[in-house]
Specification:
Structural class: mainly alpha
Number of domains: 1
Number of helices: 18
Distance between the termini: 20 Å
Largest sheet: none
Shape: globular
Order of helices and strands: HHHHHHHHHHHHHHHHHH
Strand content: under 5%
Length: 479
């Protein structure tokens, strides 16, 4: 008996050759069935459906703006609506950190504080009542330059300390502890002198940085004023406002980078404690900064934030976070959230993606702070305490981790609920707290869980390609 199998036997022994599970035909190569093409996706319809909320939101803002800005609506109601918008920006930006990347940050109020103060100070002192955009831009450029030089010096010192581990692995720790004691002693003693002696190295360095910044502002200021004068008068205020918002957000992002690089090596409760401590450091530093008003804060800030600017920023924040979260980069971030070890084994740079989420969230947290400062007209360090960070975390958790629309919904509810309970002032916070407890007991996954209220765009599925086994089968049948 011949050892060669017949064509039907070959087909039987090989089984289904179609990658989609369809059985191969037994009538030879001419009738061999090919893989069925994947159903075509109606790209334009999916795109229209997925992006419909964006133009609808813009239209809603345009229609509601005259109502909110009218006297009939009332100043109290208008302020509540504005606080809702600020909390939406904060909750959506923190959702990218806590919800999508899986980090537990309790320091979002610190980024908000950086944005608020670095918009309020130049708006009051530099912008000439929102009419000098070039000087405002020069302020941020000068501050960025001296900050970069200072950061480079500090990084160089840190790298030198790190190299000392070649002597012994305990040497860097001892050097860092000694340096921390030295810095604290130097600053506490040097602050007593208007012009610290050379022996106070760190105090002298801070004075040198301040003088460098003042020199840059003094020598670049006249040229910046001339540039602003060349701009149309109607464009100066909005351009200044945009520069303030972007500048404040950029420095908040830089703060997030400085905080994130060392802190994101931690996980869970340890990361929460670290971010909380760093946020408190930011608050204490600003509270003891005399140019920023100290404990009294900053007053007399020009008011420019209105309904259109605020909710326009909320729409942009939502769109950017949405695009990041549901892109290839966002899926890598979510893979790190689910299992960091497995994600690293698949070639994902876990540190890069965690820092990306952290910096992006910090940027929009700073934007929210800038919008808040340019609306309230006065800010104090007490507003940006740990209570504010916890409030934002509650919004994200109540809406559902990993749900942007859930964060928006929770921000609206938790901003309006205390005001709706205001008639029963003595029991207001008790009822508010009980409602949160019952909500977490009855629905611990949050209002929406990980779902969204509007659909995500799904790209066309790729057509199944012929496998090597199928090519071998076709060759055997033909022969």
């Amino acid at each position: 008996m011949s050892s060669r199998k017949s064509e039907p036997d070959i087909l039987d022994s090989r089984g289904p050759s179609d990658t989609r599970g369809a059985p191969a035909s037994r009538d030879g190569a001419d009738t061999l069935r090919t893989a069925a093409p994947a159903p075509a996706s109606s790209g334009w319809a999916d795109t229209l459906k997925a992006n419909a909320p964006l133009p609808l939101a813009v239209l809603g803002v345009a229609l509601l703006m005259p109502l909110v800005d009218s006297r009939w609506f009332g100043a109290y109601n208008a302020r509540i609506v504005m606080l809702v918008g600020i909390n939406i920006v904060l909750a959506v930006s923190l959702q990218l950190i806590n919800g999508f990347s899986g980090q537990f940050s309790l320091g979002h109020a610190g980024f908000m504080m950086v944005g608020a103060y670095l918009a309020a100070y130049p708006a009051r002192e530099i912008s000439n009542r929102m009419t000098d955009p070039a000087s405002t831009l020069w302020f941020y450029l000068s501050l960025a330059f001296v900050s970069a030089v200072t950061a480079a010096v500090v990084l160089g010192i840190f790298l030198l300390v790190r190299q000392s581990r070649r002597l012994h692995e305990a040497v860097p720790t001892l050097l860092l502890v000694a340096m921390a004691v030295w810095v604290v002693a130097d600053l506490s003693q040097g602050s007593r002198h208007e012009n610290p002696p050379a022996v106070f190295v760190w105090s002298k360095g801070i004075v040198a940085v301040q003088r460098a910044f003042a020199w840059l502002m003094e020598h670049g200021g006249p040229a910046a004023v001339n540039i602003s004068a060349a701009l149309p008068a109607a464009a100066r205020a909005p351009v200044t406002f945009v520069i303030l918002i972007l500048g404040a957000g950029t420095f908040a992002a830089a703060t997030g980078l400085i905080v994130g690089l060392p802190a994101l090596r931690l996980r869970g409760d340890y990361l929460a404690i670290a971010t909380l401590g760093l946020a408190e450091i930011i608050r204490i530093l600003i509270q003891n900064s005399q140019p920023l008003g100290g404990a009294l804060g900053i007053t007399g800030i020009p008011k420019y934030t209105n309904f259109a600017w605020l909710y326009g920023a909320a729409i942009i924040t939502t769109a950017v976070v949405w695009r990041i979260a549901y892109s290839a980069k966002g899926r890598a971030i979510m893979a790190v959230r689910e299992d960091e070890v497995a994600a690293a084994a698949c070639g994902i740079d876990t540190t890069h993606h965690k820092v990306l989420a952290f910096v992006t969230g910090a940027f929009f947290g700073g934007v929210a702070g800038a919008l808040f400062a340019l609306y309230e007209r006065s800010i104090t360090p007490g507003y940006f305490s740990i209570a504010k960070s916890i409030e934002i975390v509650v919004m994200v958790t109540l809406g559902g981790l990993g749900s942007i629309s859930g964060a928006i919904l929770a921000a609206i509810l938790l901003t309006l609920l205390p005001e709706l309970l205001r008639p029963i002032a003595e029991y207001r916070m008790i009822i508010y707290s009980l409602l949160l407890v019952f909500m977490m007991l009855l629905r611990p996954q949050g209002l929406l869980g990980g779902r969204e209220l509007w659909p995500r765009r799904r790209g066309p599925r790729p057509r199944a390609a012929a496998t090597q086994d199928r090519d071998d089968l076709e060759t055997a049948v033909v022969s």
